[in-house]
Specification:
The protein has 206 residues and is of the alpha/beta class. The chain is built from 7 helices and 7 strands. The chain is elongated and about 55 Å long.
Amino acid sequence: MSRSAGNTAAVHKNAKTLPSRAVPAVELPAPSEELAAKAVERLGWKGVLLPQLTLLGRKVFVVAELLPDAHAERLCFGVGPVVDRTTVATWVWPELTGKVPPAAVRIVGVLAVAKHWRTGLASAVPFALHGDAAVVLPSSVALTDDYLSNCLPRARRYGVSIVSADPDGTVSMDLAGAPEHVSLEQTAVTRWVNEVVYEQVLATAS
């Protein structure tokens, strides 16, 4: 072994390993269900808060209201919620206009509770095109430069509300979403989401 190689090995052997800086994990200050309920009240959404469910591959909370007339019509014809996506996909065919059951619920808003703003926005944004959408984040996340520089501009762009949760579990509005939404034509996806929510509303009410 050469003298230089031996010296290098000695340096490595005697060098002290610097401790890595521990980054505290971000935790929610309360259960997701509790934070969602408080956020919905803060947002002023009126309707039934459903248990967390997975829609379009995203875990979200949905607030919805039953449409009495449409629900009564479906009861008369014995047409309950239809959650088979293949079947619902045919409902938007032009030849079936006026021949499919009416939407029996109105989705008031969709809410994501997340530890990081990127996860929250990824869950909420797909629903912001058709109605109110919001994200609940720990207040510690809302104090970072990343949040101010990246999260808030994106949330404003898509019209998503941001609610921050303090360590004691209280919530406050950090950013109000778009006050108005453009009514878009229903698609196979939106009709299917509506049917899934319809099923959950009935299950929650029973």
